[in-house]
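Handout, section B. The chain below has 125 residues.
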Amino acid sequence: MNEPEKELVEVTQRLLDSIANADWETYTELCDPTLTAFEPEALGRLVHGMPFHKFYFDLGPSDGSRNTTICDPHVRIMGDVAVIAYTRLVQIRPAHEEPKSATFQETRVWQRVDSKWQHVHFHRS
């Protein structure tokens, strides 16, 4: 993996960590305000903007330990636009419970704006 591809994996990991930690400040720093998304919580609808996502951040981080891993990332950079597809592995240990794991297949689209990557669209299933 070359340096630009590594940078995309790192910024994506930072985004996922902000989600896991309910870190709205970092999430909004990384996301374009016009972010669009298809995700299970939207029940098949295309979500526009940030308010839908803020609802979940306002709930706060989940109790217990959590680890998020990007598995088998594939990065494609096309000028100022990049696509990263991967499997997201989430390990959770809720307080006083056995550890659990979950996986999601994700594709995220990033756009370079003023030398910084901005998250502009994702599809999670």
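Note. The first strand starts at residue 31 and ends at 38. Compare this with the example in section A.
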